[in-house]
Automatic annotation (TrEMBL):
Keywords: Membrane, Transmembrane, Transmembrane helix. This is Non-ribosomal peptide synthetase. The chain crosses the membrane at residues 86-104, 131-152, 164-184, 196-218, 230-250, 270-287. It comes from the Eukaryota. It comes from Suillus discolor.
């Protein structure tokens, strides 16, 4: 055990130190030693990589799969997560307001219906804005890291991960309010110009199509349809909202003319809400650039993209061959903000990723302002475990590279051959064998006893939290297993599948 003082959390996690296989620092006296761990000996990716202790047994064969039924309380707690709780609160508050408005018990709703429409849409767009998200993550990571109670930090991570519930709730509520507004105008159509009624119907229909294009079933089973329709109908919705807001406020029902001057329109709440919404939508697109990219093809299954400049851990990059269509998000691997490059692991699954292998581009569109992912909150915790499968390593590796207090478990098949020397080199240079478990399912003959391993690593490493990046089946197994075991865990958000999987423990 090293007697050197522990590295400062902030310097390490900001990527300002160059780490080379850091050793454990200042573990508690009663912590297990490495030799006491019987299940998960470190297996090298390369023959010349750091060897494991000589007394470690050969890799055990994978156990036979056994069905395991998850308790109903676990299924409920994980299903009714913070996303759905946020959605429930937003949806309920708005529909109570709708009830009062329909009953004529809320004068504000009768006087400013447009403000309630655009106000909801404004919040919906805001919580999905990259700049707003980065500011939230920065605030939480700066002021609440390490010293606050664990339950509070876990709540912060859960809140940041599930802001989409507010996005969905406000978007649906905004459409509900505009439907009420248009219906009210049609009931009194003798007071309104036909153009107002027409624009009201068109705006409502376009907003409705935008929401339908963003439904979980469309997002997860027809991603390109979601990208194209949600984006382009979204832009159309913004234009129609501007037109509808202006003509509605410029029209004077007293004399039936559009004689309200510009100053009157600018003074309305709906006008400024629309200004805010437009700003939040446009800002991320200002950061879009056509940048140089080098692509390594270690195997037909994977493309490793290399970009210039280093990044802090826990960020996602959105890339596309087009400036405005089909942006795809991938986890960023980087040695820190001081590094010369950062990398993306793109597994070949759809048309876009296949094109990266079959026709590698020299330049690609990306947003210079990166998206903060759940891993960005790893700085909140004193020690943690990052478990991933396959290409999920792309979202996990930076956390373990930039902080010596995170343990990496990577489950994959023929990892060195599939992912190539660049990725394995980053692992061996920066993640010491005392905090690394590589499970090669091809070498070991199948999947590992995931929860058995994870429980032992959790106790050995004295972790506070587990972050999971896997496919639906892997995420389902690990997240439900952690909940049963009382281990705090955050997994990939999979909010729609056609059939729940059977899984083994």
């Amino acid at each position: 055990m090293s007697t050197k003082p522990a590295l400062a959390y902030n310097d390490v996690e900001k990527g300002t130190l160059d780490l080379h296989s850091p050793q454990l620092a200042n573990l508690a006296k009663d912590e297990k030693k490495e030799a006491d761990i019987e299940v998960f000996a470190v297996q090298s990716l390369k023959k010349d990589a750091p060897v494991t202790p000589s007394n470690v047994a050969k890799p055990p064969p994978a156990p036979a799969k056994a069905k395991h039924s998850t308790p109903l309380w676990v299924l409920w707690i994980i299903w009714y997560n913070s996303y759905r709780r946020f959605f429930t609160v937003v949806f309920t508050v708005n529909f109570i307001g709708l009830g009062f408005a329909i009953a004529g018990k809320w004068p504000y709703a009768a006087k400013y219906p447009g403000a309630l429409v655009v106000g909801n849409l404004n919040v919906s767009v805001l919580v999905r804005n990259e700049i707003f998200g980065r500011c939230l993550y920065l605030f939480v990571n700066t002021f609440f890291a390490k010293w606050t109670p664990l339950y509070f930090r876990l709540g912060c991570t859960s809140t940041l991960q599930h802001l989409g519930g507010i996005h969905s709730g406000c978007a649906i509520s905004g459409v509900a309010w505009i439907i009420l507004m248009v219906v009210h105008q049609f009931k009194q159509k003798y007071l309104f110009n036909d153009s107002i009624l027409a624009f009201g119907v068109i705006t409502t229909l376009v907003l409705f199509v935008t929401i339908c294009a963003g439904l979980p079933w469309v997002r997860n089973t027809h991603h390109n349809v979601f990208e194209r329709n949600h984006r382009f109908f979204g832009w159309t919705s913004l234009c129609m909202t501007w037109i509808y807001t202006i003509v509605t406020n410029a029209y004077d029902t007293a004399d039936g003319k559009f004689d309200h001057i510009g100053r009157y329109v600018v003074q309305q709440q709906a006008f400024w809400y629309t200004i805010g919404m437009s700003t939040f939508i446009v800002l991320p697109w200002i950061c879009t650039r056509h940048v140089k990219v080098d692509i390594e093809l270690p195997s037909p299954k994977v493309a490793v993209l290399r970009f210039e400049r280093g990044m802090q851990q826990g960020l996602l990059a959105r890339i596309s061959r087009s400036a405005v269509k089909e942006y795809h998000a991938f986890g960023i691997i980087s040695e820190g903000t001081h590094a010369k490059y950062h990398y993306l692991i793109c597994g070949v699954q759809g048309d876009f990723t296949k094109s990266l292998v079959n026709n590698p581009p020299r330049r690609i569109w990306t947003r210079e302002l990166k998206v903060a992912g759940v891993s960005n909150t790893s700085t909140l915790y004193k020690r943690g475990i990052r478990i991933c499968t396959g290409t999920g390593l792309g979202a996990a590796l930076s956390t373990c590279i930039q902080s010596p207090y995170w343990y990496l478990i990577w489950i994959g098949s023929d990892q060195e051959k599939t992912f190539g020397p660049t990725i394995s080199g980053l692992i061996h240079r920066h993640v010491g064998p005392e905090r690394l478990l590589l499970w090669d399912s091809k070498l070991r003959g199948g999947r590992p006893p995931t929860m058995k391993i994870l429980k032992e690593v959790y106790e050995y490493w004295q972790a506070e939290v587990v972050f999971i990046t896997s496919n639906y089946v892997g995420n389902f197994e690990i997240q439900h297993g952690c909940k049963e075991a009382g281990i705090p865990a955050f997994g990939t958000l999979w909010d729609f599948v056609s059939d729940p999987p059977e899984f083994s423990r």
